[in-house]
Task: structure prediction
Amino acid sequence: MIVGCGPAEFEGDVHAGLFVGWLHDTVALVAERRYGAGRLLACTFQLSTHLANHPVALTMLNDMLRYVTRAA
Result:
């Protein structure tokens, strides 16, 4: 889980997340942070272990790479 993402940040900076438990704790699974002129995309899915046998993992990785390398 990515820490430091409050509910207000889920609007634009969290690309995949969920609410956990009756307390409605937020969990970011894919989140974006701006850093200087660039940005960081953090993902907690274990995509690398499933690239060879799970087409969704490969698609997610390709889409995230395309997203972070696009023109600003």
Residues 7-68 form one domain.
